[in-house]
Amino acid sequence: MMTRWGDRFGRLLPFKVRPDDAKPTWRPRPTPSQRAQESGTAKPSGPELDWLRRLARGDTVADVARSAGVSERTMFRRLRSLYKKMKVRDRAAALRLAKRRGWL
Question: I need a surface site. Which of 34, 58, 72, 92 has the fewest CB within 10 A?
Fold first, then answer.
């Protein structure tokens, strides 16, 4: 069995003491929302904000596509690229981020 300071045979392992002014080697891992805030997600363009507003109102992707004059499949692709731009995974996360940032 390994101990905290030695190997399984009980021998002490050599280790180096870090100087006090050295950078810490461990930091807590940021949460996804903190990563999004740190990365500075780009603000959507005018039409993209309009799509988000319509989705927040409860419109379907087909309704948004019809108003934009494109097919439903094209709108799904455009929304997927918008989600990547905002650095979120799905529609719900995009709408939460947009509301939190005051874009809606």
Answer: 58
**Nearest partner of 87 among 33, 47, 49, 48, judged by Cα:** 33
pTM summary value: 0.60
Phi, psi torsion values for 51, nearest 5 degrees: -60, -45
The pair of three-digit structure tokens given for residue 25, joined into one six-digit string: 């080697």
pLDDT per position as a tens digit, 1-44: 455 555 666 666 666 656 666 666 667 777 766 665 655 567 88
Describe the crossing of helices 46-57 and 72-86 by its angle, rounded to 10 degrees.
110
Neighbours of 24 (CB within 10 A): 6
